[in-house]
TrEMBL record:
Compartments where located: Mitochondrion inner membrane
Residues annotated as domain Letm1 RBD: 43-128
GO biological process: intracellular monoatomic cation homeostasis
Identification of the protein by name: LETM1 protein
UniProt keywords, alphabetically: Membrane, Mitochondrion, Mitochondrion inner membrane, Transmembrane, Transmembrane helix
Keyword Transmembrane helix set for record: yes
Membrane topology: Single-pass membrane protein
Taxonomic source organism: Eulacestoma nigropectus (wattled ploughbill)
Positions of transmembrane segments: 58-81
Molecular function via GO: ribosome binding
The keyword Transmembrane helix is assigned to this record: yes
PANTHER family named among the record's database cross-references: LETM1 DOMAIN-CONTAINING PROTEIN LETM2, MITOCHONDRIAL (PTHR14009:SF7), LEUCINE ZIPPER-EF-HAND CONTAINING TRANSMEMBRANE PROTEIN (PTHR14009)
Pfam families: LETM1_RBD
Length: 132
Protein backbone atom coordinates (compact mmCIF):
# COMPACT_ATOMS: atom_id res chain seq x y z
CA UNK A 1 0.00 0.00 0.00
CA UNK A 2 0.82 3.64 0.07
CA UNK A 3 2.85 5.14 2.86
CA UNK A 4 1.60 8.01 4.94
CA UNK A 5 3.35 11.37 4.80
CA UNK A 6 4.81 10.76 8.26
CA UNK A 7 6.24 7.40 7.18
CA UNK A 8 7.74 8.97 4.03
CA UNK A 9 9.44 11.67 6.12
CA UNK A 10 10.76 9.08 8.58
CA UNK A 11 12.09 6.96 5.71
CA UNK A 12 13.85 9.97 4.17
CA UNK A 13 15.40 10.91 7.51
CA UNK A 14 16.64 7.34 7.96
CA UNK A 15 18.05 7.41 4.43
CA UNK A 16 20.00 10.61 5.15
CA UNK A 17 21.17 9.31 8.52
CA UNK A 18 22.41 6.08 6.95
CA UNK A 19 24.11 8.03 4.15
CA UNK A 20 25.96 10.31 6.57
CA UNK A 21 26.89 7.33 8.75
CA UNK A 22 28.34 5.43 5.78
CA UNK A 23 30.19 8.55 4.63
CA UNK A 24 31.68 8.94 8.12
CA UNK A 25 32.87 5.32 8.08
CA UNK A 26 34.35 5.76 4.58
CA UNK A 27 36.09 8.94 5.71
CA UNK A 28 37.69 7.18 8.68
CA UNK A 29 38.92 4.35 6.46
CA UNK A 30 40.24 6.85 3.90
CA UNK A 31 42.08 8.75 6.64
CA UNK A 32 43.83 5.52 7.63
CA UNK A 33 44.78 4.92 4.01
CA UNK A 34 46.22 8.42 3.70
CA UNK A 35 48.17 7.82 6.90
CA UNK A 36 49.58 4.62 5.39
CA UNK A 37 50.47 6.47 2.18
CA UNK A 38 52.27 9.17 4.13
CA UNK A 39 54.33 6.51 5.87
CA UNK A 40 55.50 4.96 2.62
CA UNK A 41 53.15 2.02 2.23
CA UNK A 42 51.60 1.19 -1.13
CA UNK A 43 47.84 0.88 -1.57
CA UNK A 44 46.21 -1.88 -3.54
CA UNK A 45 44.13 -0.98 -6.57
CA UNK A 46 40.93 -1.60 -4.60
CA UNK A 47 42.08 0.67 -1.75
CA UNK A 48 43.11 3.38 -4.20
CA UNK A 49 39.66 3.27 -5.87
CA UNK A 50 37.95 3.48 -2.47
CA UNK A 51 40.12 6.43 -1.46
CA UNK A 52 39.34 8.27 -4.71
CA UNK A 53 35.59 7.57 -4.34
CA UNK A 54 35.61 8.83 -0.75
CA UNK A 55 37.47 12.01 -1.69
CA UNK A 56 35.01 12.64 -4.53
CA UNK A 57 32.11 12.04 -2.11
CA UNK A 58 33.52 14.60 0.31
CA UNK A 59 33.73 17.18 -2.49
CA UNK A 60 30.17 16.38 -3.56
CA UNK A 61 28.98 16.77 0.02
CA UNK A 62 29.44 20.57 0.02
CA UNK A 63 26.70 21.41 -2.52
CA UNK A 64 24.51 18.65 -1.09
CA UNK A 65 24.70 20.18 2.40
CA UNK A 66 23.27 23.42 1.02
CA UNK A 67 20.09 21.53 0.17
CA UNK A 68 19.96 19.95 3.60
CA UNK A 69 20.68 23.10 5.62
CA UNK A 70 18.68 25.79 3.77
CA UNK A 71 14.98 25.57 4.68
CA UNK A 72 12.67 24.29 1.92
CA UNK A 73 15.63 23.89 -0.44
CA UNK A 74 15.21 20.10 -0.32
CA UNK A 75 12.16 20.52 -2.54
CA UNK A 76 14.52 21.60 -5.34
CA UNK A 77 16.80 18.60 -4.83
CA UNK A 78 14.99 16.37 -7.38
CA UNK A 79 15.32 19.13 -10.00
CA UNK A 80 19.05 19.47 -9.40
CA UNK A 81 19.50 15.69 -9.36
CA UNK A 82 17.82 15.54 -12.75
CA UNK A 83 20.19 18.23 -14.07
CA UNK A 84 23.31 16.91 -12.29
CA UNK A 85 22.85 13.17 -11.67
CA UNK A 86 26.32 12.69 -10.14
CA UNK A 87 25.79 15.40 -7.51
CA UNK A 88 24.91 13.06 -4.63
CA UNK A 89 27.70 11.33 -2.71
CA UNK A 90 27.74 7.60 -3.41
CA UNK A 91 26.64 6.74 0.12
CA UNK A 92 23.31 8.52 -0.46
CA UNK A 93 22.32 6.57 -3.58
CA UNK A 94 19.35 4.26 -3.41
CA UNK A 95 19.48 0.65 -4.56
CA UNK A 96 17.35 1.42 -7.62
CA UNK A 97 19.83 4.10 -8.75
CA UNK A 98 22.75 1.71 -8.26
CA UNK A 99 20.98 -0.98 -10.29
CA UNK A 100 20.18 1.56 -13.02
CA UNK A 101 23.86 2.55 -13.23
CA UNK A 102 24.92 -1.10 -13.41
CA UNK A 103 22.43 -1.73 -16.22
CA UNK A 104 23.78 1.25 -18.19
CA UNK A 105 27.36 0.03 -17.74
CA UNK A 106 26.39 -3.49 -18.79
CA UNK A 107 24.58 -2.20 -21.89
CA UNK A 108 27.64 -0.11 -22.82
CA UNK A 109 29.89 -3.17 -22.43
CA UNK A 110 27.53 -5.27 -24.55
CA UNK A 111 27.52 -2.62 -27.29
CA UNK A 112 31.32 -2.49 -27.23
CA UNK A 113 31.54 -6.30 -27.41
CA UNK A 114 29.08 -6.31 -30.34
CA UNK A 115 31.13 -3.64 -32.14
CA UNK A 116 34.39 -5.53 -31.58
CA UNK A 117 32.84 -8.80 -32.76
CA UNK A 118 31.60 -7.13 -35.97
CA UNK A 119 34.98 -5.49 -36.51
CA UNK A 120 36.83 -8.79 -36.11
CA UNK A 121 34.40 -10.53 -38.47
CA UNK A 122 34.95 -7.78 -41.05
CA UNK A 123 38.72 -8.04 -40.68
CA UNK A 124 38.51 -11.82 -41.09
CA UNK A 125 36.51 -11.38 -44.33
CA UNK A 126 39.11 -8.93 -45.69
CA UNK A 127 41.99 -11.23 -44.76
CA UNK A 128 40.23 -14.17 -46.39
CA UNK A 129 39.60 -12.14 -49.55
CA UNK A 130 43.24 -10.94 -49.61
CA UNK A 131 44.70 -14.43 -49.19
CA UNK A 132 42.07 -16.17 -51.38
Amino acid sequence: GKKSLRQKVVDELKHYYDGFHLLWIDTKVAARMVWRLLHGQVLTRRERRRLLRTCADLFRLVPFLVFVIVPFMEFLLPVFLKLFPEMLPSTFETESKKEEKQKKKLNAKLELARFLRETIAEMAKRNKADTG
